[in-house]
Amino acid sequence: MDVVSLFPAETYKGRPGGLRKDLGEMLEALEPGFLRFPGGCIVEGRYLESRYQWKKTIGDPAERTLLVNRWNDEFVHKPAPDYYQSFGLGFYEYFQLAEDIGAEPMPILNCGMACQFNSGELAPSLDEYIKDALDLIEFANGPVTTTWGKRRADLGHPAPFHMRLLGVGNEQWGKDYPPRFAAFKKALKAKYPDVELIASADPFTDRPAFKEQWTAL
Fold first, then answer.
1. What is Dmax (Cα atoms) for the chain?
2. Between the chain's N and C termini, which has fewer beta carbons within 10 Å?
3. pLDDT per residue as tens digits for the range 141-168
4. Of 31, 171, 196, 212, which is the active-site residue?
5. Kind plus residue range of the DSSP H or E element containing 196
6. Peptide bond preceding 143: is omega within 30 degrees of 0, i.e. cis?
7. Quick one: DSSP state of residue 197?
8. Is-catalytic flag, 171?
């Protein structure tokens, strides 16, 4: 066997491969203003090679690229060497979920920095990362005549998702982050001025790095 799906047949809103019906209904009952996805540190990855890449999480679930989860050996007292992400839940499903529960979609993308609690690896060029961000906005909001708007339509959602919020990086701090955020802002605002960009911050608010970054931003 190559792919085995354990998603229930009866899903929330009847979405193929969707969420558990009871959990989806609980989320909807919360009436959230926004849905932040795909999470936190998996956005960064321990190394950039194992970062979350949204383009690899859409399309046929059987064809999505398997990735070892960054939490597989994070804690020595509870190792999980066989902890993988199959991406049965990907960016397309996240956008659908936000729409179904009446929340603003708020995706978070890697800004060319791996997790600073791990390798802290930096991408020498941001071109690929900024292109992924531009393509994501087109995927979410673009008409079906565009490359990524057509991709969304081919997946079954010709109408745009009306994404207005986009996070650049997750838990990044220090001197390397502000210029990266600035590069994203320059490129994304030039083409999509209505999309609000959300900056990252030091997770420890009492450190000098937090105050320095706040001032810089």
1. 54
2. N
3. 999 999 999 999 999 999 999 999 999 9
4. 171
5. strand 196-199
6. no
7. E
8. yes
